[in-house]
Amino acid sequence: MPSAVDMQRPVEPLWRGMLVYRTLTLASTAAVTVWRLDDFASPAGAVAVLVAMAGWTLLTSIWYVGGRPDRRLVAIADVLVTVAVMATTPLVQSPQQLAADAPVMGSIWTSGAVLACALAYGVRGGLLSAVAVAGALVAFQARMETELGDIQLMILAGLTVGYAATVLRRSGERLREAITHEASMAERERLAREVHDGVLQVLGYVKRRGAEVGGQAGELGRLAGEQEFALRTLLTTGPVMTDAQGRRDLAAALRMLSTARISVSTPAHKVELPARVVDELVGVVGAALANVALHVGPDAPAWVLLEDVGHGVEISVRDEGPGIPAGRLEAAASEGRLGVAKSMRGRVMDLGGTISCDTAPGRGTDWIIRVPRAGVARNERTVVHRR
Amino acid sequence: MSEQSSTGGDAITVMVVDDHPMWREGVARDLDERGLKVVATAPDADAAVRIALAVRPRVVLMDLNLGARSGVHATEAILDKLPDTKVLVLSASGEHADVLQAVKAGATGYLVKSASVQELIDAVRRTAEGYPVFTPGLAGLVLGEYRRLADEPEGPAGAAPVLTERETDVLRLVAKGLTAKQIGERLVVSHRTVESHVQNTLRKLQLHNRAQLVRYAIEQGLTDE
Question: Which residues in chain A touch residue B92, judged by CB atoms under 8 angstroms apart?
Answer without folding.
Answer: 197, 200-201, 204, 232
